[in-house]
Write a structure and sequence with these properties.
Elements (H helix, E strand, L loop, with lengths): L1 E7 L4 H13 L5 E4 L10 H7 L3 H6 L1 E3 L2 H4 L5 E5 L10 E2 L1 H5 L8 E6 L8 H5 L3 E3 L12 H15 L18 H17 L11 H12 L3 H22 L1
Helix pairs in contact: 1-2, 1-7, 8-9, 8-10
Enzyme class: transferase
Subunit structure: Homodimer.
EC number: 2.1.1.200
Length: 242
């Protein structure tokens, strides 16, 4: 099962190196940075020093401009949060949630927010689950490298450690997060066309639909059908207005 660690708007180069080290000791090497503070963050001396030998992970890592680019081929996306979000995905401990994932196949993505402001609600809404690491109630502040290490360890254990057999991929893998996002944008426009969604007062309709489809885990073929439905809805609404 493929695994990707995604860091959004990282502001400290040292944390990128710490992330690479935390990933490598657990056998992972797919690191993507979304709009990091430094264009050259992957080669900055602080990042290289904190990587402590995991420079191969830094060399393979890439920086992209948007979260959509980072989510290519990701079929199950987990946010990391300190507090649950209203209308967001279910909030679980890493051990509780990850234990059931290895049989699902596809690519799992772990999403980490900025050191300065954490995860934005709109990014959390895109996820299938929100992972909250159990910490002391009077001091819950984990630095980014430590949080990545905990998640990487729990995921490695869920996969069977380093001696466990690799899980067999699912014959009907779910569509990736990009496909789901594109379908939801198509549906949003169609719902506006038929008068079901008021763009001036959308409330929480789209985040709720996002969670509905995340729970359903539609396949690429099903995404194609849903986009066909959205197109038919919009076409019918336009004809009715003529």
């Amino acid at each position: 099962m493929n695994t990707r660690f995604i860091l959004i708007e990282t502001s400290h180069a040292g944390n990128v190196g710490a992330a690479a080290r935390a990933m490598k000791v657990m056998g992972f090497d797919d690191l993507v940075l979304v709009n990091p503070r430094w264009d050259d963050v992957l080669t900055r001396q602080e990042a290289v020093d904190r990587a402590s030998g995991a420079t191969d992970v830094l060399a393979k890592a890439r920086a992209v401009a948007t979260l959509d680019e980072a989510l290519e081929n990701v079929t199950h996306l987990c946010a990391t949060v300190m507090t649950a979000r209203d209308f967001g995905p279910p909030t679980r401990t890493p051990r509780e949630h990850l234990a059931a994932l290895p049989a699902a196949g596809g690519c799992v993505g772990f999403l980490f927010g900025s050191e300065r402001y954490g995860m934005r609600n709109e990014d959390v809404y895109r996820c299938h689950a929100a992972l909250r690491i159990p910490v002391a109630p009077d001091y819950g502040s984990l630095n980014l490298g430590a949080a990545i290490q905990v998640i990487a360890y729990e995921w490695r254990m869920a996969l069977g450690g380093f001696s466990g057999a690799a899980p067999s991929p699912s014959s009907t893998e779910p569509a990736d997060a990009q496909a789901v996002t594109g379908m939801l944008q198509h549906w949003e426009q169609a719902l506006i066309e038929v008068g079901f969604l008021d763009p001036a007062a959308p409330k929480k309709l789209m985040p709720r639909l996002n969670q509905l489809f995340n729970r359903a885990q539609p396949t690429p073929e099903e995404i194609h059908i849903l986009r066909g439905v959205a197109k038919a809805m919009a076409d019918a609404a336009r004809k009715a207005k003529l």
